[in-house]
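= Protein in question =
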Amino acid sequence: MSSVPRSPRPDLVAMHWRSALVLAIVSAVGLVAFGWPLFTDPGSALDTSHSADAPWLFVLLLPLLAAIVLAELTEGGLDAKSVAVLGLLASVGAALRALGPGTAGLEPSFLVVLLGGRVFGRGFGFVLGALTVFAGALVTGGVGPWLPFQMFGLAWVGFLAGCLPAARGRTEIWLLAAFALVAGLAYGLLINLWFWPFASYAPELSYVAGDPLADNLHRYLVFWLTTSLGWDVPRGVLTMLLVLFAGRPVLAALRRGARRAAFDVPVEFEPRPATEVSRS
């Protein structure tokens, strides 16, 4: 009798339907937060710094992240051990953000989020990315209207890392390295949207309310290539190199710890034998 081979990359913290629903709602909120200025009417008065809506977005984001964790706790996806690992990895990521708080685009905390999402799954990676940015902002004093947008950006990096196809060995490392490079570039491409529509640049780089979406996106792409790419390339290259040189031992350590913690072993309670009950 042949047995079905086990998947080479199981999600150690599986995502259930309640947490998937909350995560979809959170992502929809994030997409609206990033994209609503692109659909304003001509002559609309836009706030100059997101100072009006960012606090509300932050207030909305934290309970939704808590809802994802609670949904996983109630459905058995998360337990005390995995919550402890989540807090530990977020602390490590926050410390790395303090060591390199985005200087020249260099953010080593991407490595922790990427590998955490890879090993522990999509929902875990999403929450880990958001918590890493939040904790790092508290450590470095980087709290501002940009914070909720950075939380969304790195949360999606962790989520997508958990969605990568199954692989092991050198194939997995090269897959993660390629994703790290793309994620470093895409993160910058996305994050710039939190301020670009509200700032004034040369006409060929500035947002124009009411213009066709394709025209505004073309101007934004030119803006990104001429101003932000020099920061985003170092971020992607650094994360890629960290994956190539440190990815294998870090993945092995995370998976070894997960095996010893037995995340995928269900807890079962057995009734005490009647003889023991009578003796007690």
Summary: The chain has nine helices and no strands. Confidence is low (pLDDT under 50) at residues 1-10. The two ends are 46 Å apart (CA to CA). The chain has one domain: 17-262.
